[in-house]
Amino acid sequence: MDTRVDDYIAGLPDWQQDVCHEVRRLVHEADPDVEETIKFTDRPYFVLDGNVCALLGTKDHVNVMLYDKASVPDPHDIITSGHGNKTARMISVYRDQPINAPALVEMFRCIIANNRRRKGAGPRR
């Protein structure tokens, strides 16, 4: 756990803190080797052989950015935007909206597996 991520979350409204704590727990549940860091001055990122996800508290919701290069299936329809984005897609979580934890963990695990596969492939010659 990175204390800078703690500080970021602590600065959010209570309900957004709850969302961020749950997402944080779920990404570590997906793989305990996930590391935390801060990028772009204050944004919490969760990484393992590449970016997995990031958190961003906004005025009325929390964005969970999934760094899946639009390759991870979304059979539970939890992606809310960025469907055509080649870098990341997003799940926007609003106050009192439940998170589909099993679906999110499944997506995190798929992103991590893809990151490992890409890292293991090495540069093409």
UniProtKB/TrEMBL annotation:
Looking at the record, the residues that make up the YdhG-like domain are 16-109
What domain of life does the native source organism fall in? Bacteria
Q: Kindly name one Pfam family recorded for this protein.
A: DUF1801
**Protein name stated in the entry:** YdhG-like domain-containing protein
